[in-house]
Amino acid sequence: MADVLRIQDQCYLEITPESGASLRAKVLASPNTCFAAEAAAGVVGYLIAVPILYPDLPALNSPSFEIARDADTLYIHDLAVADCGRGTGAGRTLVRSAMIAAGARGLRNACLVAIQDSVRYWAQFGFTPVAPPSDRVAVKLASYGVAAQLMRATM
Predict the structure, then answer these.
(1) Among 33, 42, 90, 142, which one is most buried in terms of CB atoms within 10 A?
(2) Neighbours of 90 (CB within 10 A)
(3) What is the model's pLDDT at position 155?
């Protein structure tokens, strides 16, 4: 978790980084859909994803998380790659690993909240912007910043 927090601090400039407790709760809830990328320099990236019942996105920085019994969608909560891991394919490998794990769980859809001008990055994996399906989701999106964009993909 120390590496995750270090990379998160390095990568997130437009939002306040989440607490270790919040990230840990998601990893503990679904360890098979969370991944780290390692290189000679150590951990250079991570992806935290959890199954949800769409569109029930977890709140940013929530100290707890439980997987819905009838989860139908992989929610990619956080992907970050340190400067030393950029250009290595670490991010692409992390995303693909999560999608494979989701498919093994029977999930056929994925969603995420794109921040820091990352919509184009996520589009290469088949994610497309969608409008918030409810006011409740819109409020959660707002916690990610004014430019946050909900995106979905079919796997």
Answers:
(1) 33
(2) 24
(3) 86
Q: Which amino acid is at 11?
A: C
- Rounded Cα gap, residues 4 and 23, in angstroms: 9
> Residue 148 has which token pair?
């946050």
Distance CA 52, CA 70 (A): 8
Element (H, E) at 104: helix 90-104
What span, in angstroms and rounded, lies between the C-alpha atoms of 151 and 139?
15
How far is residue 23 CA from its own chain's centroid?
Answer: 10
Q: Which residues, given as ranges, of the chain have pLDDT below 50? A: none
Other beta carbons within 10 angstroms of residue 33's beta carbon come to 27
Determine how β-strand 73-81 pairs with β-strand 109-114. parallel
- Report domain extents, the chain: 2-154
Nearest to 105 by CA among 79, 69, 130: 69
Q: Which CATH superfamily is domain 2-154 in?
A: Gcn5-related N-acetyltransferase (GNAT) (3.40.630.30)
